[in-house]
Specification:
The protein is an alpha/beta fold. The chain has nine helices and 14 strands. The strands form two sheets. An eight-stranded mixed sheet has the order 5-4-3-2-1-12-13-14. The chain has a six-stranded mixed sheet with strand order 8-7-6-9-11-10, covered by helices on one side. β4 and β5 form a beta hairpin. α2 (about 30-40) runs parallel beside α9 and α4 packs across α5. The longest helix is centred in the middle third of the chain and has 15 residues, at about 90-105. The protein is globular.
Length: about 270
């Protein structure tokens, strides 16, 4: 076994399609590799597009007590204390204007929205297909979406797939809001300039860690800014082609312990 020190002070991992397997669990091998990395002096931060209410139960199940970056970077969350450290909200007037402009271009959209806060509900309107088995509140009247602070909107089109919808949305309203694809069927409207890198940099600063000390793992285009910020970006084998194109390396899939494969190598245990 190598006696060289672990080369990173921070391991940043996306959640869905990266740390989690398809059944929303983390393998024992990956848990052990992360524990070994933290024992070697690195911090582990989960960086996810999910807002806190859709992330809390997973962090609790993992026994995760550290800082997590949630909501595409909008929320920095102390998982041990169950409290928000920072939270960025979407300008609702600007978001409504962007939605109006986009619908004028592509026709009616199905929408959902993530309300701010540790207990913030995810609301969804007619026609919106919620991904996975996650708690959400149905609204027949989508005008109620705007009644409280939001972190982000989700949009779906009856005919355009997520890649096409992202492209036309960026062309139409990309100067007003951020547009990101977070997973299959998941296109989000965010505050302009917000990204996973925003939240990760805030969290890293709290830990006294720099970008040069960070290795990041991900699988979707919303991980591109995080890869741009970190010293080393690792895409999963199941990653979107856009992320693989900017990754420093590609590991095995989330179902094949892709995070562990890299960490074990770096720890000299592969």
């Amino acid at each position: 076994m190598s006696t060289a020190p672990f080369p990173y002070k921070l391991v940043a991992t996306d959640l869905d399609g990266t740390l989690l397997r398809g059944d929303d669990t983390v393998s024992e091998r990956t848990r052990e590799a992360l524990l070994a990395a933290t024992a070697a002096g690195a911090a582990h931060i989960i960086v996810t597009g999910r807002a806190v209410p859709w992330t809390r139960h997973i962090l609790d199940d993992l026994g995760y007590k550290g800082i997590a970056v949630c909501g595409q970077g909008a929320q920095v969350y102390d998982a041990g204390a169950h409290r928000l450290l920072t939270s960025v909200t979407l300008d609702r007037k600007l978001a409504a204007l962007a939605l109006e402009k986009l619908e004028a271009e592509v026709g009616p959209l199905a929408i959902a929205a993530s309300r701010d806060g540790v207990e913030g509900e995810v609301l969804f309107g007619p026609g919106y297909q919620v991904q996975g088995d996650l708690p959400a509140l149905y609204l027949e009247d989508t005008s109620q979406v705007w009644s409280a602070p939001l972190n982000k909107l989700y949009i779906q089109h009856p005919e355009l797939d997520e890649d096409a919808l992202v492209q036309v949305a960026r062309e139409t309203v990309g100067s007003l809001v951020g547009i990101v694809m977070a997973g299959p069927g998941v296109v989000e409207i965010l505050p302009l300039g917000l990204s996973k890198a925003t939240g990760l940099s805030l969290a890293a600063r709290r830990l006294g860690v720099k970008a040069a000390d960070t290795i990041a793992f991900g699988d979707m285009p919303n991980d591109i800014p995080m890869f741009g910020w970190a010293a080393h970006g690792v895409a999963m084998a199941n990653a979107h082609v856009e992320l693989k194109a900017v990754a420093d390396e590609v590991t095995t899939s989330n179902e094949e312990d892709g995070i562990a494969v890299v960490l074990e190598r770096l720890l000299g245990a592969a």
